[in-house]
Amino acid sequence: MAIKLEMLRCFAAVASTGSLAAAAGLLGRTPSAVSMMLAGFEAQLGAPLFEGERKSRLTPFGRVTLAEAERAIAAFDGSVAAIGRSARSTAGTVRIAAVPSVSITLLPRAIARFRAERPDVRLEISDVDSVAVKRRLEADEADLGLASGPVGLGLASELLLTDALGIVCHPDHPAALAPDPIGWDALASGPFVANPLAALVDHPRVAALAAASHLVARNTTTLLAFVRLGLGATILPERIVDRAAADLRFRRPMDPPAERPVQLLQQRNSRLNPAAEAFRRCLAEAAEPTLL
Q1: How does DSSP assign 64-131, residue by residue?
Q2: Where are the domains of the chain?
Q3: Residue 277: which region, alpha, beta or left (left: phi > 0; alpha: psi -120 to 50)?
Q4: Domains 5-88 and 163-258 agree in fold
Q5: 123 has which bridge partners?
Q6: In CATH, what class is 163-258?
Protein backbone atom coordinates (compact mmCIF):
# COMPACT_ATOMS: atom_id res chain seq x y z
CA MET A 1 0.00 0.00 0.00
CA ALA A 2 1.67 3.23 -1.20
CA ILE A 3 0.14 5.98 0.91
CA LYS A 4 1.52 9.40 0.06
CA LEU A 5 1.80 12.39 2.31
CA GLU A 6 -0.40 14.40 -0.09
CA MET A 7 -3.19 11.88 0.53
CA LEU A 8 -2.92 12.36 4.27
CA ARG A 9 -2.96 16.14 3.90
CA CYS A 10 -5.97 15.96 1.61
CA PHE A 11 -7.91 13.72 3.96
CA ALA A 12 -7.03 15.83 7.02
CA ALA A 13 -8.12 19.02 5.23
CA VAL A 14 -11.49 17.52 4.23
CA ALA A 15 -12.04 16.14 7.75
CA SER A 16 -11.20 19.47 9.41
CA THR A 17 -13.29 21.64 7.07
CA GLY A 18 -16.19 19.25 6.45
CA SER A 19 -16.43 19.86 2.70
CA LEU A 20 -14.51 19.30 -0.51
CA ALA A 21 -14.78 22.94 -1.53
CA ALA A 22 -13.41 24.27 1.75
CA ALA A 23 -10.58 21.73 1.71
CA ALA A 24 -9.76 22.70 -1.87
CA GLY A 25 -9.40 26.34 -0.83
CA LEU A 26 -7.17 25.33 2.07
CA LEU A 27 -4.94 23.18 -0.13
CA GLY A 28 -4.90 25.45 -3.15
CA ARG A 29 -6.49 22.82 -5.41
CA THR A 30 -9.75 22.38 -7.27
CA PRO A 31 -12.62 20.51 -5.57
CA SER A 32 -12.50 17.83 -8.29
CA ALA A 33 -8.80 17.22 -7.66
CA VAL A 34 -9.44 16.90 -3.92
CA SER A 35 -12.35 14.51 -4.58
CA MET A 36 -10.20 12.31 -6.84
CA MET A 37 -7.33 12.14 -4.36
CA LEU A 38 -9.67 11.33 -1.49
CA ALA A 39 -11.34 8.59 -3.52
CA GLY A 40 -7.96 7.12 -4.38
CA PHE A 41 -6.95 7.19 -0.71
CA GLU A 42 -10.11 5.35 0.33
CA ALA A 43 -9.59 2.83 -2.46
CA GLN A 44 -6.07 2.08 -1.23
CA LEU A 45 -7.28 1.70 2.32
CA GLY A 46 -10.19 -0.50 1.30
CA ALA A 47 -12.66 1.12 3.71
CA PRO A 48 -14.72 4.33 3.75
CA LEU A 49 -13.51 7.28 5.78
CA PHE A 50 -16.77 9.28 5.84
CA GLU A 51 -20.37 8.39 6.51
CA GLY A 52 -22.38 8.71 3.26
CA GLU A 53 -21.60 11.12 0.43
CA ARG A 54 -21.23 14.17 2.61
CA LYS A 55 -17.85 14.77 4.26
CA SER A 56 -19.09 16.11 7.56
CA ARG A 57 -18.99 12.90 9.58
CA LEU A 58 -16.14 10.39 9.90
CA THR A 59 -16.60 6.65 10.21
CA PRO A 60 -14.95 4.95 13.23
CA PHE A 61 -12.16 3.89 10.87
CA GLY A 62 -11.95 7.47 9.61
CA ARG A 63 -11.43 8.81 13.13
CA VAL A 64 -8.56 6.40 13.74
CA THR A 65 -7.05 7.24 10.37
CA LEU A 66 -7.33 10.99 11.01
CA ALA A 67 -5.42 10.74 14.30
CA GLU A 68 -2.60 8.83 12.59
CA ALA A 69 -2.62 11.20 9.61
CA GLU A 70 -2.28 14.26 11.85
CA ARG A 71 0.63 12.66 13.72
CA ALA A 72 2.39 11.79 10.47
CA ILE A 73 1.88 15.28 9.03
CA ALA A 74 3.16 16.97 12.21
CA ALA A 75 6.23 14.71 12.33
CA PHE A 76 7.05 15.36 8.67
CA ASP A 77 6.59 19.12 8.98
CA GLY A 78 8.71 19.18 12.13
CA SER A 79 11.51 17.26 10.45
CA VAL A 80 11.47 19.55 7.41
CA ALA A 81 11.67 22.61 9.68
CA ALA A 82 14.57 21.15 11.67
CA ILE A 83 16.49 20.27 8.50
CA GLY A 84 15.96 23.76 7.18
CA ARG A 85 17.18 25.36 10.40
CA SER A 86 20.26 23.18 10.43
CA ALA A 87 21.01 23.96 6.79
CA ARG A 88 20.79 27.70 7.41
CA SER A 89 22.56 27.44 10.77
CA THR A 90 20.48 30.41 11.90
CA ALA A 91 18.09 28.55 14.16
CA GLY A 92 18.12 25.65 16.55
CA THR A 93 19.27 25.25 20.13
CA VAL A 94 22.67 25.32 21.80
CA ARG A 95 22.78 23.90 25.33
CA ILE A 96 25.53 25.23 27.62
CA ALA A 97 26.28 24.02 31.13
CA ALA A 98 28.62 26.32 33.04
CA VAL A 99 29.86 26.96 36.55
CA PRO A 100 28.29 30.12 38.01
CA SER A 101 31.49 32.17 38.12
CA VAL A 102 31.94 31.71 34.37
CA SER A 103 28.26 32.40 33.74
CA ILE A 104 28.73 35.79 35.39
CA THR A 105 32.00 36.83 33.76
CA LEU A 106 32.63 35.10 30.43
CA LEU A 107 29.26 33.98 29.09
CA PRO A 108 27.70 37.45 28.71
CA ARG A 109 30.46 38.54 26.30
CA ALA A 110 30.29 35.28 24.35
CA ILE A 111 26.50 35.54 24.10
CA ALA A 112 26.70 39.14 22.88
CA ARG A 113 29.09 38.09 20.10
CA PHE A 114 26.94 35.11 19.19
CA ARG A 115 23.71 37.13 19.15
CA ALA A 116 25.22 39.56 16.64
CA GLU A 117 25.88 36.66 14.25
CA ARG A 118 22.98 34.27 14.93
CA PRO A 119 20.06 36.02 16.61
CA ASP A 120 17.59 33.20 15.85
CA VAL A 121 19.41 30.48 17.79
CA ARG A 122 17.97 29.51 21.16
CA LEU A 123 20.54 29.37 23.96
CA GLU A 124 19.81 27.24 27.02
CA ILE A 125 22.17 28.01 29.93
CA SER A 126 22.45 25.67 32.92
CA ASP A 127 24.11 27.32 35.91
CA VAL A 128 25.55 24.34 37.83
CA ASP A 129 28.74 23.19 39.55
CA SER A 130 31.61 21.41 37.79
CA VAL A 131 30.43 17.91 38.68
CA ALA A 132 26.97 18.62 37.27
CA VAL A 133 28.45 20.18 34.12
CA LYS A 134 30.30 16.95 33.32
CA ARG A 135 27.28 14.83 34.21
CA ARG A 136 25.09 16.79 31.79
CA LEU A 137 27.59 16.42 28.97
CA GLU A 138 27.93 12.68 29.54
CA ALA A 139 24.13 12.31 29.54
CA ASP A 140 23.87 14.36 26.31
CA GLU A 141 21.93 17.07 28.15
CA ALA A 142 24.40 19.78 27.06
CA ASP A 143 26.43 20.52 23.93
CA LEU A 144 29.20 22.52 25.60
CA GLY A 145 30.43 22.71 29.17
CA LEU A 146 32.54 25.17 31.14
CA ALA A 147 34.04 23.72 34.29
CA SER A 148 37.22 22.94 36.21
CA GLY A 149 38.69 19.84 37.81
CA PRO A 150 39.33 16.32 36.44
CA VAL A 151 37.79 15.48 33.07
CA GLY A 152 35.88 12.24 32.52
CA LEU A 153 37.00 9.67 29.97
CA GLY A 154 34.04 10.40 27.74
CA LEU A 155 34.81 14.13 27.47
CA ALA A 156 37.22 16.18 25.41
CA SER A 157 38.62 19.37 26.89
CA GLU A 158 40.73 22.39 26.10
CA LEU A 159 41.97 25.06 28.47
CA LEU A 160 39.92 28.19 27.91
CA LEU A 161 41.33 30.49 30.57
CA THR A 162 42.98 30.54 34.00
CA ASP A 163 41.59 32.50 36.94
CA ALA A 164 43.61 33.75 39.90
CA LEU A 165 42.03 32.59 43.16
CA GLY A 166 42.07 34.60 46.34
CA ILE A 167 40.22 35.59 49.49
CA VAL A 168 36.98 37.49 48.91
CA CYS A 169 35.75 39.28 52.00
CA HIS A 170 33.70 42.17 53.35
CA PRO A 171 35.69 45.42 53.67
CA ASP A 172 35.39 45.12 57.47
CA HIS A 173 36.74 41.55 57.59
CA PRO A 174 40.20 41.20 59.21
CA ALA A 175 41.56 39.72 55.98
CA ALA A 176 40.60 42.91 54.14
CA LEU A 177 42.49 45.04 56.63
CA ALA A 178 45.62 42.89 56.88
CA PRO A 179 48.80 44.44 55.43
CA ASP A 180 50.57 43.02 52.38
CA PRO A 181 51.83 40.46 51.79
CA ILE A 182 48.81 38.43 52.89
CA GLY A 183 48.80 34.65 53.37
CA TRP A 184 46.10 32.00 53.32
CA ASP A 185 46.31 31.94 57.13
CA ALA A 186 44.35 35.21 57.03
CA LEU A 187 41.22 33.17 56.44
CA ALA A 188 41.47 31.95 60.02
CA SER A 189 40.97 35.50 61.33
CA GLY A 190 37.21 35.25 60.86
CA PRO A 191 34.40 32.92 59.73
CA PHE A 192 34.99 30.98 56.51
CA VAL A 193 32.32 30.14 53.93
CA ALA A 194 33.51 26.97 52.23
CA ASN A 195 32.99 26.13 48.56
CA PRO A 196 34.53 23.57 46.12
CA LEU A 197 37.22 26.02 44.95
CA ALA A 198 38.97 25.60 48.31
CA ALA A 199 40.16 22.20 47.06
CA LEU A 200 42.30 24.01 44.43
CA VAL A 201 44.37 25.76 47.12
CA ASP A 202 47.39 23.73 48.20
CA HIS A 203 47.58 24.96 51.78
CA PRO A 204 46.91 22.94 54.96
CA ARG A 205 45.10 25.81 56.72
CA VAL A 206 42.61 26.14 53.85
CA ALA A 207 41.92 22.40 53.85
CA ALA A 208 41.36 22.43 57.61
CA LEU A 209 39.06 25.47 57.47
CA ALA A 210 37.01 23.95 54.66
CA ALA A 211 36.58 20.70 56.59
CA ALA A 212 35.53 22.53 59.75
CA SER A 213 33.28 25.15 58.16
CA HIS A 214 29.64 25.15 59.24
CA LEU A 215 28.56 27.14 56.15
CA VAL A 216 29.09 25.69 52.68
CA ALA A 217 27.72 27.00 49.37
CA ARG A 218 28.34 26.24 45.69
CA ASN A 219 26.53 29.02 43.85
CA THR A 220 28.57 32.18 43.26
CA THR A 221 25.63 34.53 43.80
CA THR A 222 24.89 32.85 47.12
CA LEU A 223 28.53 33.04 48.21
CA LEU A 224 28.70 36.76 47.42
CA ALA A 225 25.47 37.36 49.33
CA PHE A 226 26.90 35.60 52.39
CA VAL A 227 30.10 37.64 52.21
CA ARG A 228 28.15 40.91 51.88
CA LEU A 229 26.17 40.04 55.00
CA GLY A 230 29.40 39.51 56.93
CA LEU A 231 28.86 35.78 57.38
CA GLY A 232 32.47 35.07 56.47
CA ALA A 233 35.17 35.23 53.83
CA THR A 234 35.37 32.77 50.95
CA ILE A 235 37.60 31.80 48.02
CA LEU A 236 36.66 32.95 44.51
CA PRO A 237 38.32 34.05 41.24
CA GLU A 238 39.55 37.63 41.09
CA ARG A 239 37.47 38.27 37.97
CA ILE A 240 34.27 37.79 40.00
CA VAL A 241 35.11 40.76 42.21
CA ASP A 242 36.07 42.89 39.20
CA ARG A 243 32.82 42.18 37.37
CA ALA A 244 30.15 41.45 39.97
CA ALA A 245 31.34 42.44 43.44
CA ALA A 246 33.24 45.71 43.36
CA ASP A 247 31.92 46.46 46.86
CA LEU A 248 33.93 43.54 48.30
CA ARG A 249 37.65 43.07 48.73
CA PHE A 250 39.87 40.59 46.91
CA ARG A 251 43.21 39.62 48.46
CA ARG A 252 45.51 37.21 46.66
CA PRO A 253 47.82 35.16 48.90
CA MET A 254 51.04 33.97 47.31
CA ASP A 255 51.97 31.22 49.78
CA PRO A 256 51.37 29.54 47.34
CA PRO A 257 49.46 31.30 44.56
CA ALA A 258 46.32 29.42 43.49
CA GLU A 259 44.58 29.33 40.15
CA ARG A 260 41.39 27.86 38.76
CA PRO A 261 41.63 26.47 35.21
CA VAL A 262 38.43 26.81 33.19
CA GLN A 263 38.03 24.06 30.61
CA LEU A 264 35.79 24.05 27.56
CA LEU A 265 34.25 20.58 27.44
CA GLN A 266 32.28 18.53 24.94
CA GLN A 267 31.56 14.87 24.31
CA ARG A 268 34.58 13.01 22.97
CA ASN A 269 34.35 11.87 19.33
CA SER A 270 31.15 13.84 18.78
CA ARG A 271 30.65 16.56 16.21
CA LEU A 272 28.99 19.80 17.21
CA ASN A 273 26.13 21.12 15.11
CA PRO A 274 26.91 24.35 13.21
CA ALA A 275 25.27 26.60 15.80
CA ALA A 276 27.13 24.97 18.72
CA GLU A 277 30.42 25.18 16.82
CA ALA A 278 29.79 28.89 16.22
CA PHE A 279 29.12 29.43 19.94
CA ARG A 280 32.28 27.51 20.78
CA ARG A 281 34.24 29.97 18.65
CA CYS A 282 32.57 32.93 20.37
CA LEU A 283 33.57 31.50 23.75
CA ALA A 284 37.19 31.21 22.67
CA GLU A 285 37.20 34.80 21.36
CA ALA A 286 35.56 36.14 24.51
CA ALA A 287 38.23 34.41 26.63
CA GLU A 288 41.15 36.10 24.86
CA PRO A 289 43.37 37.86 27.43
CA THR A 290 42.88 41.29 25.86
CA LEU A 291 39.12 41.01 26.44
CA LEU A 292 39.19 39.72 30.03
Answers
A1: HHHHHHHHHHHHHHHHHHHHHHHHHTSSEEEEEEE-HHHHHHTHHHHHHHHHHH-TTEEEEEEE--HH
A2: 5-88, 92-161+261-291, 163-258
A3: alpha
A4: no
A5: 94
A6: alpha beta
CATH entry 1.10.10.10 includes domain 5-88 = yes
- Tell me the per-residue pLDDT of 3-30, one tens digit each, with 9 for 90 and over: 889 999 999 999 999 999 999 999 999 9
Write the CB contacts of 104 (distance below 8 Å, at least 6 apart in sequence).
220, 221, 240, 243, 244
Per-residue model confidence as pLDDT tens digits over 181-201: 999 999 999 999 999 999 999
CA-to-CA distance for 14 and 138, rounded, in angstroms? 47
User: Which fold would CATH assign to domain 92-161+261-291?
Assistant: D-Maltodextrin-Binding Protein; domain 2 (3.40.190)
Say if residues 176 and 169 touch (Cβ distance below 8 Å): yes
> pLDDT tens digits for 254-263?
999 999 999 9
